Amino acid sequence: MRKIFFDIETSNIFADVGKNDPSLLDLAVVGIYDSESDKYSCFEQSELTALWPLMEKADLLIGFNSDHFDIPLLDKYYPGNLSAIKSVDIMKEIKNVLGRRVGLGHVARVTLGTGKNGHGLDAIEWWKKGLKDKVKEYCLQDVKVTKELYDFALKNGYVQIEDGTNKIKIQLDTSGWEKRNNSAMTQTMPFY
């Protein structure tokens, strides 16, 4: 099964566009891990034509808050519909059990003992200052943490959060995550 783990960073925030709508934001970079090539890569907006074939060949797209944020924003640039590819949004899976959203950094720190190397707002400031390599490094760290969290949940059936000083196990039903449904595409749409 070919899995693409991904995360995006934007060059602006919701306050800049006046609405809480991810599709109104501007993409800075997309970071991915491709299980087929076993490689991490970053793509700037001008390089998206190289990203689409990788995503289209994926059996599964995996992210954190990806169904709510990343996929709607990427669909703004994609000539097809990324929602047609099977996806697992780890934040959504946690929210379905817990009843509320929890950040990637928190879940990773409590579950894995590791975390993020900054904050999304930091990445926007770095981008504005021209520190593109720093933004890419930050984005790829989020992809790495997302992959490690997914692998942990798949193996153990849970992730953890802290509530005060107590660790709480969030049991996740991972049984359908890697079931094939022939959702991978074979070419970029639309046809030219």
Automatic annotation (TrEMBL):
The residue ranges of the YprB ribonuclease H-like domain are: 4-151
- InterPro entries given for it? RNaseH-like_sf, RNaseH_sf, YprB_RNase_H-like_dom
Any single GO molecular-function term of the entry would be: nucleic acid binding
Give a single Pfam family match. Answer: RNase_H_2
Family matches, as Gene3D superfamilies? Ribonuclease H-like superfamily/Ribonuclease H (3.30.420.10)
Q: Which domain of life is it from?
A: Bacteria
Name under which the protein is recorded: YprB ribonuclease H-like domain-containing protein
Q: Which organism is it from?
A: Candidatus Taylorbacteria bacterium RIFCSPLOWO2_12_FULL_43_20
